[in-house]
């Protein structure tokens, strides 16, 4: 007999129970990782294809872009006045 047949099965495996996942979910019911923030992505249409897009990550994330814009605006206001 093979090794697998001789092993005793766990009670959970026999009953077909599934482990529950206790991760937070967003408003649409999707799992949300508590450590990672969502990535900034850009969808680019594929030429000649109907409804096909390529996902590309943005060079500068939105948070950094907003910060740089704020600093530039403050610097411009200081230079003018």
Features:
81 residues; alpha+beta; two-stranded antiparallel sheet; 3 helices; 2 strands; 35% helix; 12% strand; flat
Write up what this structure looks like.
With 81 residues, the chain is of the alpha+beta class. Helix content is 35%, strand content 12%. It is built from 3 helices and 2 strands, in the order ααββα. It has a two-stranded antiparallel ribbon with strand order 1-2. A hairpin with a 7-residue loop joins strand 1 and strand 2 (53-57). The longest helix has 19 residues, at 62-80.
Query: Strand portion, in percent?
Result: 5-15%
Structural class: alpha+beta
Please give the count of helices. Answer: 3
Mean pLDDT across every amino acid position = 76
List the strand order in the largest sheet: 1-2
What is Rg?
Answer: 26 Å
- Helix coverage percent of residues? 25-40%
SSE topology sketch:
Layout: H1 3-6, H2 11-15, E1 41-45, E2 53-57, H3 62-80
Antiparallel strand pairs: 1-2
Short description:
The protein is an alpha+beta fold. It has 3 helices and 2 strands.
């Amino acid at each position: 007999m093979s090794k697998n047949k001789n092993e005793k099965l766990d009670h959970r495996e026999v009953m077909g129970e599934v482990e529950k996942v206790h991760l937070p979910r967003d408003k649409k019911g999707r799992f949300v990782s508590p450590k990672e923030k969502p990535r900034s992505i850009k969808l680019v249409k594929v030429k000649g294809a109907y409804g096909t897009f390529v996902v590309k990550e943005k060079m500068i994330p939105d948070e950094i872009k907003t910060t740089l814009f704020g600093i530039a605006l403050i610097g411009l206001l200081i230079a003018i006045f």
